[in-house]
Amino acid sequence: MAPLTSAEKHYRLALSLVPGIGAARLKKLLAYFGSAQAVFSAAHKGNTLLPYTLAQSITSSSSLAQAEKILQLHASEAIQLLTTEEDSYPKRLLDLPDRPAILYYKGQALLNQQRVVTIVGTRQLTPYGQAAITKFLEELLPYQPLVVSGLAYGADIWVHKQALEIGLTTIAVLPTSLDQIYPTAHKQIALEMCVGERGGLLTEYPIGSGLGPYTFVARNRILAGLADVTIVIEAKEKSGALITAYYANNYHREVFALPGSIYSATAAGCHRLIKRNQAHLLTHIDDLIYIMNWEVDKPPDTYINHPLTESEQTVFIQVQEAMQPITIDALSDATDLPPGTLQAALLSLELQGLLRALPGKRFTIAPIYSHKRKV
Q1: Does residue 84 sit in helix, strand or coil?
Q2: What does the pLDDT look like over 257-282, one tens digit per residue?
Q3: What is the spatial order of strands in the sheet that 355-358 belongs to?
Q4: What is the pTM of this model?
Q5: pLDDT tens, 63-95?
Q6: DSSP 369
Q7: Strand order across the beta sheet in which 146-149 lies
Q8: Cα–Cα distances in Å, from 25 out to 15, 84, 285, 311, 341?
């Protein structure tokens, strides 16, 4: 997708600042009118397709002047504004009903890497939790994922520090605007993450926004939505990390949890996730690699040397193009195949060793075929 023009980005930002226009409403307005500039034009012309109160909010708002000031401030701080139409916007967020309309990003690392892992946990991180994070990151190194966390005390900051030390790219999602790093004690690490392509800082709040309790919960949905998989490292019964796991489950992303001692308060949240089948047990990174079907050092591209039926080809291609394990319901929507035909194709592909069935009626390409193949 091509970047927005500077004028449309100005209007888009201004529209998002109008009281009463949240991300969901903004999405509907853009879909209907085609652009933010067209929405402003409709409001000023008294277009009856816009509710009167909304048109009044738009015409009486000073959001255009606010937006101009915000754009200038962010440009002076080398902060990018990412909109949903641009390739730089995290594509894993695009399908989320509560996706941010605009994101603010400081850094050079790409947000759309092939593999993305979010790691969160308690602020009271124990030496056991520290050792587990370091171990998992070292084991993930061959897969070169983008590592995401929230820069908070405890697990989050340890994740960022270890990722930088090991040589993995790491992104922090903040509950504040990028002019006020939170917590301030981690400002130096945050600045290090913005050097070169080592990582970056991401938020949905423009410069001048305040910090409130709701911003932490809102931040957690981005943590979950950015990644293919969320790992919970030590969490108490009411830990914020469990909110991130909740969002990840709702977004149909994989969740893993580190087990701990039955006597440890910081393990109680992880145990609850595992007991309720809301997270896979994680004792070695191979547990994650198997479920996610991540492979490294693949042989050169080869071809399937036996013919597939038309329905098998259709299903194989859809599973192959998916960025993560795909459900049978999603396959049904994508292929429009009758249920019986779809089931037969899946079974045949699985018996041929081309697909792997996973828990929850999900399917993924078998490891040997995880690169794009001719069918």
Answers
A1: coil
A2: 999 999 999 999 999 999 999 999 99
A3: 326-327, 362-365, 355-358
A4: 0.76
A5: 999 899 999 999 988 999 998 888 899 999 998
A6: G
A7: 80-83, 102-107, 199-203, 170-173, 146-149, 116-121, 229-233, 254-257, 280-281
A8: 10, 14, 40, 39, 39
